[in-house]
């Protein structure tokens, strides 16, 4: 594969998007010898660098354009840096004579010789120096501009190929890569990383860090942060700059943007450019062949063949002989979407340098991106993000200390607590741009990111700092409307004490229609701070709800009661005491035992008021079996708790049992009540997506034994007027399926945006709109007898993530009266 190659008729121009950078010395002219050498673009030169630093600008010898990401290395070592987007570089040197190489995949290599006086004391003034933020005084250096000649493009003779030559190059890359990749077992490196957040055209924050990294085959990257600095508006503890992930584009599978979903680590998993199935997923076209430093470099365009899985689009560079991927300029395809995130742009560029004549190791990482966040009534200004990492000082196939493997992915050394100007002067910092230099001097501690990216829209205004006082007041007000109390207005507040770990809760309210005062006083204590055990008790008088699934909170139920006379819960009055103990050793396990002693009585409908439903009466509130209930119950939960409105669906299992008997604390009731709720989601399509197409089901079952009172009966939850979350019967009527035994099973298949990608409807898939099909069955028994009508069955189709949050479902009810129901809900994202 070393002969001539056909050259593509079109070329991609290099677009420089940033200009005017850090060094004020750009106005100073180099010596005549240096100027002549820059114009010639090559040759050996020798000069003395006082202070041990070499700086300058690297340009294209043909066009004069700056060349970013040039790998600047000291010959015979792995020490080096890269040039910034304006071609500027800064390289610390050791003492004595050294040869500095300038390497770029698209250009011929160039070298200069420098004699460094690293230990020479710095004079007071040095021409052409721009200080590093936070550093005192001046430091002298040699300024050296270099002009690189573009690598020779190999022009073939007139050759006709049955297929594009890129396909054969990719086949050889697939065949050969394991021969050299498997010989790399471990490596260590040093790195400098700068992360910049932009708002519009200005810099919003800068974080920088020096790190040392270790990679062991089969393990993840481990990094130790040894020095860091940041603009004044970023607290040191919020400086998260680090390489964090070394993407190897020679891998078969490349994962980006990890999240934890139901104890499983999910990510976008892209097919690598030289994966075994790469030719099935990408189209390849040879753009040009360059000969650089005796090695032919093949620049190849990659085009995804499908929109249904994560793939890259852009160009890769493959080196002859090893057939390794040694350069990339790639963007993700249309499957790269996230909830609430719009107008995503992400460009990943990287070059590799050859070490030990065998291994191509990352020399730099350059990430440019941007996005907007928009939800109904809420949004933040567009966020721009830039990262550049210079990676150097490689040690290949050396030992990795056990202490490194046992640490987390990123750890912070204690030395970062103080800024060490000497360290920053003597290591490989990629020069700042002029905008970044200005940001260091102008951004102060008041210009925090939350202020710069202050949310806009209606919800954003409600979150304004000026509304915090009103928010605090609203937080203690307890207001609701029900058919058994009418308007009920009260207050509630919690008071915390850390010695001992105690929380005191106090609340009181008044129902204006039933004319009754309600109250509650509670206390909870954690006896030992680090124990996962909490105990507590409460005294109360209030309206309680007959048990249901808890889908509809006080706010939404009050609204439907006021405007549609649909008050979903059934109520009864309770007055008494309860005590409990909760054991929670982790987020995924919890248990609670509760003892209750309370007097229970019926509550009649006390009002017929509504804003818009006229004289139509409220649904009757069922009578209960009154008396003194004394019971003990146990609830055990496994998995994460269920989130409100199921915005995030967690896999969990919850089992509850309650026992009451005249022989137990002289209760007026004699029954046992058991129930279980299981929610589980598993991927079925698109496993390489961050959020794959998934099948989700929820099963609720409850059974009463003995003389189960009506206030302890079970219900299969249904829609609330037109609102229906997952798990509720969208075609059911309120409390239609209630009894002393109930079973309800709901299932849905979320196809995500895959159907709209397949149909090529950009408006839908770019906004993350999802297609869902669903169904449910339910059944209730009363005294062991099947409730009238038998089994309930329904099926339907839904469109989710409309305007990010809304879901619409059309459901057909098979049981008489059979009909269609249109319901709305809140979109789920995991």
How do the strands and helices of this protein lay out in sequence?
Layout (H helix, E strand, L loop, with lengths): L31 H9 L5 E5 L2 E8 L10 E4 L5 E3 L5 E5 L3 E9 L2 E11 L24 E2 L2 E3 L3 E2 L11 H17 L4 E14 L2 E15 L5 E9 L22 E9 L2 E8 L6 H4 E11 L2 E10 L7 E8 L5 E8 L8 E15 L3 E17 L2 E19 L5 H4 L4 E3 L8 H6 L7 H9 L6 H4 L4 H6 L5 H9 E6 L3 E12 L3 E11 L4 E11 L6 E13 L8 H11 L6 E16 L2 E13 L25 E13 L12 E9 L10 E15 L7 E14 L7 E2 L22 E2 L1 E10 L3 H5 L3 H5 L3 E13 L2 E2 L5 E11 L3 E8 L5 E8 L4
Parallel strand pairs: 1-7, 2-8, 2-9, 13-23
Antiparallel strand pairs: 2-5, 3-4, 3-6, 6-7, 10-16, 11-12, 11-22, 12-13, 14-15, 16-17, 17-18, 18-19, 19-20, 20-21, 21-22, 24-25, 25-26, 26-27, 27-28, 28-29, 29-30, 30-31, 31-32, 32-33, 33-34, 34-37, 35-36, 37-38, 38-39, 38-40, 40-41, 41-42
